[in-house]
Design goal:
The protein is α+β, with helices and mostly antiparallel strands and 274 residues long. The protein is built from 7 helices and 10 strands. The structure holds a DNA duplex (13 and 13 nucleotides).
Length: 274
DNA sequence: CCTCTATGGCGAA
DNA sequence: TCGCCCTAGAGGC
């Protein structure tokens, strides 16, 4: 259930708890048994995230294919649980060097061993990531502003905005007051910059908090001090999955429309077309 | 028991 | 644009 902030958080947890000694790797469900046997007993060199791609680099003693490439897709999850957990379909299990915690992979879209060349190939397909400081924002702005595709579509293009998913798309556009249907070429440089800068801020916050919170304090409805729990995704948001509810800013009802197979949410009043 | 849903992305048509 | 893959939890009967 991941957008980029989740993947970066997973990389951080792996780096904090799984390096420094040999890890036990297995595939209880059996699907990745070959990879697991090659990695078992070796050390993790580094875990890192680019957009929604998670890479776990093992030491070179593993062989030429020393990186585990994981993409969680829509329903995959990597959870840190007690080592004796058996629940569900555990495709890959990595036990930390102290044997106190296990990373359990369930339902991934991809999980495979790759070499350095394939690692570079995946990076080449991945655009600038608001959570990395190596992003080339100038060329991103040019690409967006030369496209006839809508900004709602462009934001989901991982070659342009790596790590952005359906929630950050909806929330960044709302906060910038931009309709998802405006073509990229009709946006000003300042508007594209505004979207990018907001994603940088929101996603960094998401990594720290472990959930997507986008509502500014002055717009938070009075909940008498109670924590809301508006939605399964856990955070407090302006428009995502709030169709039919009142906009926190203007009171109009939030709209919903299926666009390219995904549910799009926005406020027609705060995000006017033009 | 069944059906539906989800923060993704791929490949066939 | 559609169907499909992967999983788990919620809700309906």
């Amino acid at each position: 259930m991941p957008e980029g902030h989740v993947i970066h958080r997973l990389a951080r947890t792996l780096n904090d708890g799984f390096r420094g000694g040999p890890v036990a790797v297995s595939s209880p469900q059996g699907r990745f048994a070959r990879a697991a046997s090659l990695l078992d007993g070796h050390r993790i060199r580094l875990a890192e995230a680019y957009g929604k791609h998670l890479f776990i680099h093992f030491e070179d003693t593993v062989g030429p294919e020393a990186t585990v490439y994981i993409h969680l897709g829509l329903i995959g999850q990597l959870r840190f649980e007690p080592v004796d957990t058996q629940k569900g379909q555990i495709r890959l299990r990595i036990v930390d060097p102290t044997s106190t915690c296990a990373a359990h992979l369930r339902g991934p879209q991809f999980c495979r061993l790759i070499d350095r060349e394939e690692f570079q190939t995946i990076l080449a397909r991945t655009g600038p990531d608001p959570l990395r400081d190596d992003a080339d924002v100038a060329s991103l702005t040019t690409a967006v502003r030369s496209s006839r595709r809508s900004i709602g579509t462009l934001l989901m293009d991982q070659k342009l905005f790596a790590g952005v998913g359906n929630i950050y798309r909806a929330e960044a556009l709302f906060r910038q007051g931009i309709s998802p249907f405006i073509p990229g070429k009709d946006l000003s440089e300042q508007e594209v910059r505004g979207i990018w800068d907001d994603l940088v801020e929101l996603m960094a916050k998401g990594v720290e908090e472990g959930e997507i919170n986008t509502v500014r304090s002055e717009h938070l409805p009075d909940r008498m001090g109670r924590k809301p729990r508006v939605d399964d995704h856990g955070g407090e948001v302006y428009v995502y999955r709030r169709a039919g509810l009142e906009c926190y800013v203007c009171g109009h009802l939030i709209s919903e429309q299926v666009l390219q197979g995904r549910n799009l949410f926005w406020c027609r009043h705060c995000q006017p077309e033009r």
